[in-house]
Amino acid sequence: MRLNKLINAGLTLALTAGIVAGTATSASAATVTDPERYSATPTGFGWYFSASKATINSWANQYNMRITNIEVNGPDNFTATLVHNSGVYQRGLSGSSSWTTDETVDTMLAKLAGKRLLDLERYVVNGQTRFAAAWVDNPAGNWHDYRWYINSTESFINQKQADFNGRIIDIDHVSADRYDVVMVPNTGVDYKDSKVVFGKTMVEIGNIIALDYRVVDIERHADGKWSAVLVKNDQAYWSWHPNLSGQQVLDMQADKGLRPIHLKSFVQNGETRYSVIFVDNLDTVSIKARDAIEDGVGHSSATRGFYLKAVDGGVYNWLGGDTKFEPASMLKALHHIHAMRQVYLGNDSLADGVTWYKNPAGPNNGGWCAYEDDGDPITTLPVNDTLENTLKGMMEQSDNRKTDAIYNLYGPNALNTTADALGMTNTQLNHRIGCTWEAAGQVKASNELTLVDAGKLYESVYRASNPYLGTGEARTKFTELASDGTSIFSAVMKEEAAALGLTIAQRDEFATQMWGAFKPGGYANGTPTAVCDATGCTELLMRSTGGGMLSIPVKGITGRISEKKFVYGAFIDGVFDCGTGADKDCSQESAAMWPAVQASMAEMMRPHLKAALATFK
């Protein structure tokens, strides 16, 4: 669960007089540490780049979120990160009660009974210093001591930290050698191997990070230096980015499956920029799937994603499931389901005649549609075929000539209407797959698909209630005329079978019961800005995609076989730098993409294969 709002906003810096404040003591011992900055347990979360207090409160109250980090952009304009108030992140205060704004020191002190500060921010309203703060409840049964000091020097803070045996959890630069800080005692469950830096350069902070520390709070000074809080790294994955655009923040989060724990805006050369700290927000299986697909992304900024859902059940793994990408031949499944729906309804027959055309320049090449460069169709080499053979060639061999015939037979409007009927709200067929954009009757734009939409397509065929193609021949043929995709999971299945101690016969019995329907896609083109010649292109837009349904056998205690069905998919879609001059070469990147996509899908399915294999032992 997340909310992303990209709204430009400036950063208001404020000054205040020197004040020191603290807390009362309690006899009760603290029993839990703060998970906001330290836990990588997957959870719902959200953030606002720029929003009013009322807007943030409305969303936080509606979705049981609590504010964990707040930055002030103006009198009623805030940047905020939020976490779902459940599980390890559960606290008594949530929604609008988890933060406050427009406070003086006196009003803040009056409201802190039973609360503990997480984050403190100062700003100015009509020339008067005010504070915003995120806090958690601090009840007697789970009490944590803490201190907060404002407008204090580095030496003063260091002395207080030593006296308190504390560690700083929040730091804000006020002016020159003045800071606001919040600290907790560095003992018991609150202990962390921690460091704080005041007014350091990126290089200096990077030297500490290199010692296996990670940043949990960071503040940019007006002179470009930084103050930061770091702790010894105990997370599977984290990242810190001191200077990103809003869109880069969105892309980084979506591509990696991360949760922001700190987000702060600043203005640089008239542009709003953000410093952001992320921690992992994926489960163990999804992390493995992400690691696998990263091998195909390399150093590019390509978008990537994966998705696994049980048919008639819940989602298991998701990264970029709702991200639109160019699906290439993966979208031929839309043509297939539309045709088979017409067969199911009795409007067409698989024995009906269909004509497709060869390209004289490559008559035996299924990747070459029959068109002139200006988009005029070439009809000199017609092939009279059946609808069944045409669909089989489209789905199994990914023949673009036969796909074009299906496109011509039904038309793009009908195909897009089918996508709408299946609830594929983020899918759009704009052009003939694998053919020139100059051909008539199409939009000169990329086709669009999401993994969630691909899952809807396949689930509509195999769901228990009201399947789109019924339960008879139309559904059977939909499966038979497509590739089954089982080879993607063969290696993982064999690994898990061996680990469980299954015999070869038991493993093979399992394998013969696996089946599915699958369609991959992919291609590479020079980008509009690429320089291309006989040695290659300086950069390529490359896609590698795939998705389908897999049925896994499960053996009951009586030996009866039942099925567990899943819809799945993965993709990589983006621009790859291929070098310059005679060194232009993206062959390694291209060769890595499809294996990485397959490995990602296999890792998602691994625990389900393992559980099903165990029933065959």
3D structure, described in words:
With 617 residues, this protein is of the alpha+beta class. The chain folds into 3 domains: 263 residues, no CATH class; 180 residues, no CATH class; 118 residues, DD-peptidase/beta-lactamase superfamily (Beta-lactamase, 3-Layer(aba) Sandwich), CATH 3.40.710. It has 16 helices and 25 strands. The strands form 8 sheets. It has a 5-stranded antiparallel β-sheet, with helices on both faces. It has a 4-stranded antiparallel β-sheet with strand order 1-8-10-9. The chain has a 3-stranded antiparallel β-sheet with strand order 2-4-3, with helices on one face. Strand 12 and strand 13 form a beta hairpin. Helix 7 runs antiparallel to helix 16, helix 8 runs antiparallel to helix 13 and helix 14 crosses helix 16. The two termini are 39 Å apart. The N terminus is likely disordered.
